[in-house]
Amino acid sequence: PVDGKTEISDTTQLPEFPELWNRISALVAGKLVLEQSLVGQLHAGLWFHPVRHFAVLTGISGSGKTQLALNYAQALCNVEQYDHDRVRVIPVQPGWYDPSPLLGYVNPIQDSSYRSAPFLDLLLRAAGDPEQPYVAVLDEMNLSHPEQYLAPVLSAMETSGWLDLHELSEDTTPIPRRVRYPANLAII
């Protein structure tokens, strides 16, 4: 622990669990009942590795998986409910057969432009702000085959490697050609 925070990667600092639990308890007070041990398991499972911060929540429909993930993320990042700068809920659609809904794509009509995506925007913000945690909640991720749309992300996460995004010239788009997977981004 450094100054009441737990250091996870080289620079990312997370709140100590008692502080995190107090934040999440305040967020859900009167709306949702979460067991402290469940939140503790999620927190430990997400952050035990220096880069690979990925958790899949399972349970029957309506059991509160999305609310657990969202409230955990807001408490972790200490942000307001509709603050999308560091926490983003991304609804997965049934037709996701490749990574473009997450990582964007070169616009086929305008070859010189790149269409970003909310997940990529969050990933780029995380890469530029390594001291703060960021969380992407992939809601209903089972509606498509995760191995198809998440493959490059999971590979980069596993290897602390790079995500290759496009081959456009650097002066035509603000999106970099490639980005190293950030160690401060968690995916639930």
SSE layout and pairing:
Elements: E1 5-7, E2 13-15, H1 17-28, H2 36-47, H3 65-77, E3 87-91, H4 100-103, E4 105-106, E5 114-115, H5 118-128, E6 134-139, H6 146-149, H7 151-159, E7 162-164, E8 178-180, E9 185-187
Parallel strand pairs: 3-6, 6-9
Antiparallel strand pairs: 1-2, 4-5, 7-8
Helix pairs in contact: 1-3
Provide tags for this entry:
188 residues, disordered N terminus, 35% helix, globular, alpha/beta, two-stranded antiparallel sheet, single chain
Question: What would your notes on this structure say?
Answer:
The chain is of the alpha/beta class and 188 residues long. 35% of the residues lie in helices and 16% in strands. It is built from seven helices and nine strands. The strands form four sheets. A three-stranded parallel β-sheet has the order 3-6-9, with helices on both faces. The protein has a two-stranded antiparallel ribbon with strand order 1-2. The chain is globular.
